[in-house]
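Training component of the fellowship. As part of building independent skills, the fellow (R.M.) carried out the full modelling exercise for a liganded target. The chosen ligand was pyridoxal-5'-phosphate. The inputs are recorded below so that the supervisory panel can assess the work.
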Amino acid sequence: MRYRSTRALDDASVSFGAAMMRGMAPDGGLYVPVSTPALPSGWDDISNLADASSLANAARWALPPFMGAASAEAVAQALDFEVPVSRVGQDLVLELFHGPTSAFKDVGARSLAHLMQARLQRAGKSATILVATSGDTGSAVADAFSGLSRLQVGLLYPLGGVSRVQEEQLVAARPGVRAFAVEGTFDDCQRMVKQAFADPELSDLRLSSANSINVGRLLPQMLYYLAGVRQARRHFGVQSEITVVVPSGNLGNLAAGLMAQKIGLSGVTFVSAHNRNDYFARYLTGAAEPYGFAPSIATLSNAMDVGAPSNFERLHTMFGDDLKALVSAQVVNDEATLERMRTTYEQHRYLACPHTAVGLEAAARLASQSAGTATLVLSTAHPAKFPESVERATGVTPAAPSALVAYGAAEKRVERIGADAEQLKAALLSKPSFSG
Ligand SMILES: *Cc1c(COP(=O)(O)O)cnc(C)c1O
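Fellow's submitted model of the complex:
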């Protein structure tokens, strides 16, 4: 498969490996596959559902045409956790948070790490990943890349700008990972990373990125749609039409779902669930122009606080105005999010994180419109990652999974630097190998 930039005016294309190592195209666009390889027939055979929740098997069916069999196998090895469904009233919840950092970002980050490691190993090279993070992405990336022999990671986060649980995960000492607490904002962190990429004095580090627009993160996210819909059909019936509710921010999750549909995941309808950062919802109804983005607004579901979703360009290029027929949207404010967390616990004894609650509230609004819909809500984080909101809504402190508890107790390692690209550069050059 070849990949082209969303901004390319000609037919120029690159290999999967080049698209992944670059992350973003040189013209500033995002890479998209040039064609649509269909899923092999029989992938959804419901009689063989013993492995329905296995992402590894889905990787072996769906990914070879996109990246070759060896890379598909690297993804299968990376995704060594399940995506089980839970019944919550009439709906099913697809729990994407059983990976090592308890958030769905583990799927993309682990896939990308293992894809890059396999490629660098073959080429006899190494690379340094630099990420600016305001929360979940950084810990998923740190965990995913840590300990891989060809890769090391620098994380930048705004000092005082992440939650306690998030910070514990970011500063836990890991082989090959350095955490930088920046005396500034998330925007400062992003600017410093950009300047580092452009700095010739840092070229020996072979800097690369791991952000959510990378095709190496995006394509493997199709897999949980395949695994989730198979499980939903077992529950609701083989012929059932499934409505999939996707809590959305940067729209990477939704883009992966629409790509899964394009390669043959049929009988599904998508609903994008947003907090008050509702640009995409307004675009779908015609109330906002393409790319007529808005500044972001802080909400309880903070991983979805995105005013200018970076995957919009990919979706708009791949689907154009068809998007408006393929997806509908719901917008849920903080009050309704808390209320949905509370009623979900009271009625079903299920604790949901605020992002998942935005999805559950969207599903509830749909159900009241049409009885008997089979709905699958994607759950994007474990409730224990957001204990303050969960307690506020339900009065219950969510029990942390053992991996999260371990982070709280782990040895910490963090370097504090000013919001200044020169300070980052000095720190990187002072210790070019992070493991020492
Ligand atoms: C990143 C994230 C989202 C949003 O996913 P996008 O791919 O950015 O739309 C939702 N929930 C959680 C917990 C996240 O970390």
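The panel noted the following from the submitted structure. The longest strand covers residues 151-158. The pocket of pyridoxal-5'-phosphate is lined by residues 103, 105, 136, 212, 247-253, 303-304, 355, 380-381 (CB under 6 Å).
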